[in-house]
Amino acid sequence: MYGQHPRANRRTLVTSAVVLTAVGLFGIGVTTGFWANNERIAHSISSAQSSPAPVPSESEDEQLGSMMPDVRGLSEPVARQVLADSAAGGARVDTESRPHAGLSGVVIEQQPAFGTAVPDVVRLTISAPAAVPAVDGRTETEIRAQLLELGVQANVVRRYARGSAPGAVLGIEPPAGSPLPETVTVTVADTAATAYLADVEATENSCAAGSYTQAGARKDNALSCRVNNRRGSEPKGPIWEFAAAVDEIELTFGLPTDAKPGSSVRVAIYVDGRPAGETEVAYGATADLGAVTTGALQFMVFATPTGGDPDTVTVTGTVRGSRDAIVALTEDE
Q1: For residues 178 and 131, is the Cβ–Cβ distance under 8 A?
Q2: Transmembrane stretches, by residue range (predicted)?
Q3: Confidence band for 1, pLDDT divided at 50, 70 and 90
Q4: What percent of the chain has pLDDT over 70?
Q5: Distance between CA 119 and CA 68 in Å, rounded?
Q6: Which of 2, 126, 179, 275 is deepest in the core (most CB within 10 A)?
Q7: Identical fold at 131-191 and 195-329?
Q8: Domains of the chain: which residue ranges?
């Protein structure tokens, strides 16, 4: 550059030469390292490709060939042929039949087990046609044990049944005596689930749920239902949609404390439109009324005055049925 000292020019040239030399050496090193690394990779691949794959030794083959084969699930003729072609070819084959679900004529058990030493005698159990067992008077434990012995997976459904002890078998599907499939449904009696009638929504409602007096006592989870004062009218009161979920209902009726002394009402209950019971209750007293409602779709309460013209009657009580059905009925509110 114009006006710059010659020594400064020489220093600049020396510095540039050093930098260029360093860059060149670095490039040579990278190239050499890359070439050497590729050589190592190529050598490794070549060595791996030239190495033979491991093969089982003759002693391992001999050991496998001397063991008992697995013939379960094969038909008897095929199982005998497999045994004859194996190390068990010299053994005597004994068979027995046993009722079993699914196909008949196939091996369901073998002795000795697969992979064990070959004996002098091989025992095969062959499946025979089986029927769905009878369940009358039997417990869940008994029927499940029998079905397991027959090779059946039991699908258990539980429901409440009046008069049946929990665990008693109520039915089986397919019906007893039918050809036995690999899966059956067993219905077993269960303990009852209980809910307040006040927790079940009424579709045609003239009742209010809450805490009310009944014969002088305060009752929670109660219903205060209007009394039908139109004499001679067609029975019509609050209706509950049971949807076949309720097996039993038990109710208690009483007049509220603020009713006129000497008042009384007649209460009738209807199941699917048919009379299921009635009672009369006087002021200061209570009366119980219940019904079996298994399979019923609707339930109705109809109250009429018999003295004193009371406006309401207090109702308490519960419904009982299978657990899942009662839960669904009370959660649909």
Answers
A1: yes
A2: 12-36
A3: very low
A4: 79
A5: 8
A6: 126
A7: no
A8: 65-129, 131-191, 195-329
The answer to whether the beta carbons of residues 195 and 328 sit under 8 Å apart is no
Fold designation for 195-329: Jelly Rolls (2.60.120)
Whether the full predicted model's pTM is greater than 0.70, yes or no, is no
Q: Residue 99 has which token pair?
A: 């009722």
- The pLDDT assigned to 76 comes to 95
Q: What mean pLDDT comes out for the span 279-297? A: 96
Tokens 């008949």 belong to 104
Tokens of 279: 């009672």
Looking at residue 69, what DSSP letter applies? P
Q: Is 294 helix (H, G, I), strand (E, B) or coil?
A: coil
Do 69 and 83 contact (CB within 8 A), yes or no?
yes
Tokens of 64: 């496998």
Instruction: Evaluate if residue 122 carries a pLDDT over 70.
Output: yes
pLDDT in tens, 191-203: 999 999 999 988 8
Overall fold of domain 131-191? Trypsin Inhibitor V; Chain A (3.30.10)
